[in-house]
# Entry
Amino acid sequence: MRFEDLGLEPKILQALQEAGYDIPTPIQAEAIPEALKGRDVLGIAQTGTGKTASFTLPMIDRLSKGRAKARMPRSLVLAPTRELAAQVSESFETYGKYHKLTMALLIGGVSFGDQDAKLARGVDVLIATPGRLLDHFERGKLLLTGVQVMVVDEADRMLDMGFIPDIERIFKLTPFTRQTLFFSATMPPEIQRITDQFLSAPARIEVSRPATTAENISQHIVRLPSGNDSLKRATLRKLILDTKVKNGIIFCNRKKNVDVVATSLQKHKFDARPIHGDLPQAYRTETLQKFRDGEIELLVASDVAARGLDIPDVSHIFNYDVPVHADDYVHRIGRTGRAGRSGHAYMLVTPADDKAMAAVLKTTGLDNIEAVDMGDFFDQEQANARARGRGRPTRSNESKSSRSSDSKSTRSTTESKAPRSDDTRPSNPKPVRDDKRGGRDRGEKTVGLGDHVPAFLQRNGV
Ligand code: AMP
# Structure
């Protein structure tokens, strides 16, 4: 099957050829002909399957005829996160380069004024996150009655983020004659209900999820003796130093942890930056671009910020936390080992993570996961922590491990280009308590409870 066989017009084929795409992916091969016929499509596919092109290409085809009216977009794409929305707009630019389609991106963190000016001129393609779209609508700046094609991308993630009532409302603001292209990686009952209500006899296309036990991704777990945050961070640093990381993404479950881990890595001269939903949009965009361009080595990310991001060629994934939803494990490690390259995934597992870990194993059916023995390192870390607790000056472990790995020379280039932590912080960073008050990394220790300090007693609260 070739793109020429799908019924796309020559200008799109030309753009595809220039983008270097020869063969449609399975979701493209199945969805594009149906969408071109004007049918609704229900695509059960996750990121990495080529689903973005499976809706942008037929949309460009359909929108190539006709003109947009002021404040009445002709098509609408809803995406859960700003990054994903921006990525969809890049796809329109790539595949639509020979069409004169006008486009507006309505995402938070960007001024209303510029977005409004575009809407006023009339747009063929409106790409939006649900909240920002409704903000514009409520200001009376937008009419959705001219929408001919509506796309919902990553619907299950919208559900996780609480956007389903917004989506229902937006559906009701568009004409029932619209064509709907709806994508979700999974079909929980709430999503099924929405599709039953708003899609009309859709072509249901399901493509298999990327294999989680892909031979080209080596998967490892490290079992930690305790959930101590300082130990977790030291273990992460040790892993990064020991595993020849070219570039990597470190996943944390909470935004607060993202900040703490990124700041801690910066403090130890790693070339790392945080990315999560509370950071300023300009900083998020710049960070992603720099990471894509290879100017930043490590991205510390939350699931939502990283979901669906198309970042080719990441050598390592570090699960700093075991994901709460086992499905997220699949999404996380799917960031590496792309396009047949080899990838490496590591996950830190504390005694408190046993249940979540069991869920990951059950969901993924993993059988090739390898446990890394870091017993000597933990013994040394714990001995150092005890010495610190007794107030004795001690050589910190991390500097020791950095130095020993430096001598192996694997870090020399990245360390020399690592910016000062001030340079890598967002322009409007959230205060990180660890920095302000002196966390356990700085030698403070809650005494009297041995190594098992309940989280709520730890001063840095992470
Ligand atoms: P998506 O699932 O839409 O996020 O796409 C994942 C990646 O696959 C993106 O980098 C696309 O540029 C790329 N891609 C999409 N379709 C094709 C294709 N037919 N051939 C090669 N790469 C593709």
Notes: Residues 375-389 form the longest helix (15 residues).
